[in-house]
Fold this sequence. Notes:
It is a single chain. 66% of the residues lie in helices and 0% in strands. By secondary structure, it is mainly α. Among the domains are: 1-26 and 41-52, no CATH class; 56-132, no CATH class. The longest helix is centred in the C-terminal third of the chain and has 25 residues, at 140-164.
Amino acid sequence: MGANVRKNREGSCHIFIYILQRLPLKSSNPPPLKSSSLPTFAPEMDIIFLSLHDWSLPIKNPVFLMCVLLLTVLTVPALLQRFKLPGIIGLILMGAILGPHGINLLEQGDGIKLLSKIGLLYIMFWAGLEIDMASFLKNKHKSATFGMLTFGLPMLFGVALHLFF
């Protein structure tokens, strides 16, 4: 019976098949299970479990992907707060490190793209909350000039590069 379990490496139902093979079929009331009658999971069962998952990088399994993301989101800001740094800086750095241009741990799929856009909106929202409106209104001409220059100059350089090259 154990050989059948080792041969059935396709899918995650090999343990279920093993349990079904161990159930008595003739008796309508099976005897109570003793601790010695329970199946023991040998080291080869661990190898079967590990062989069921794709451990190559980037991570493609959505469950493992969410585990890495949740672990990062929950630990990095807490670590940076101990150094009196904003947590958002750590999240940006971890995104650069874990992403496709870093160690390529996370696959850039639709879910990651969606979460990155949500993160960008979160950063912009947080920056809007940090604005001191009294100071902004006091310096409204300087602020408007700065805003126009930070938009206008890159736009002009981009158009000039497009026209000349």
